[in-house]
Amino acid sequence: MRTALTIGNFDGLHLGHKQLIHRVLEFSREHHLTPALLTFDPHPTRVVAPDRAPKLLTNLAHRKELIHAAGIEHIEVLPFTPELAKLTPREFIEQIVVGKLRARAVVVGDNFRFGNKAAGDVYLLKEMGREFGFDTDVLHAISWRGTVISSSAIRARVQSGDVSRACRMLGRPYCLEGEVVRGHGVGKKQTVPTLNLTTQAEVLPAGGVYVTRTSEIGSSRRWHSVTNIGYRPTFGDDNRLSIETFLLDPLEGATPHEIRVEFLKRLREERKFESPEALKAQILRDANRAQRLLRSLEVLY
Q1: Is residue 79 predicted with pLDDT exceeding 80?
Q2: The whole model's pTM is what?
Q3: How are beta strands 258-268 and 174-181 bridged, if at all?
């Protein structure tokens, strides 16, 4: 197997990553190569500088799902260990890029670094390409409304609640996945019934109410929804963060076991209401507003 290869962490698989993958696919078609991608687990920073390690937008399983959907045939997940971190740039190219993955073309971003202490840059990569016999293509980062698209920029947008801009940089909605768990029972009795999500996601949208889409993992069932992230201040009985989703479409069937919630737009901050009845009235107003917004948001995503 000879490959056209791109290398990186690809957290979130945003539009900048997709640009790299698009070029890999072009190289593969032009030169009859296998489109391949090399990534690392855990994130290299967690090994070399754990105090600076970022929270991840996507876990490895979801990342691989997105990468395959983008057209990459071979994903090489390299365990990032202290031993791997010690490889010099030459050793990394010779052992991994050429030796293991038989790269005949390598596509990277202009900030790509490799080898021990990130000693290798794109200029050294081009030199080694000439020496080891692979083409090197370096792509510039892309921007949206003046902001360079990056995992860190998207992470900041999500954590501030600006999921709309995060969607534009990702090219799809930011989502949370996990199990549906039993809630407090208060919503069903006093406000509206909701699906309560527990998730292992590292990056959560800021507290508030969002226009969302909810789907059952492993099936085709899908619903428009409104999701609240917060601490249920109206009831004042819990300090635990909750993620509660109110479905705007009929459930029709058994309660799903696992769901994916896609965040399209923030409606408002979470706030305390004088009574459960007042909260219920606000939820219904949120639902009506969400239904109107969904007509335009569906065109985008």
Answers
A1: yes
A2: 0.91
A3: antiparallel
Instruction: Identify the residue whose tokens are 């290798």.
Output: 120
Residue 193 has pLDDT above 90, yes or no: no
Give ranges for CATH 3.40.50.620 in the chain: 3-141
Tens of pLDDT along 242-298?
A: 999 999 999 889 999 999 999 999 999 987 777 778 888 888 899 889 999 988 887
Task: State the residue for tokens 């507003």.
Answer: 289
3 DSSP assignment: E
Output Rg (C-alpha) for the chain, integer angstroms.
Answer: 22
The pLDDT tens digits for 95-127 are 999 999 999 999 999 999 999 999 999 999 999
Q: CA 69, CA 86: separation in Å to the nearest integer?
A: 33
Domain with CATH 2.40.30.30 in the chain: 173-300
Owner of token pair 């990459």? 72
| CATH for 3-141 (1.10.287.70, 3.10.310.20, 3.40.50.620, 3.30.1330.50) | 3.40.50.620
Q: Where are the beta strands (DSSP E) in the chain?
A: 3-7, 34-41, 74-79, 103-109, 135-139, 143-144, 147-148, 174-181, 195-198, 208-216, 222-230, 242-247, 258-268
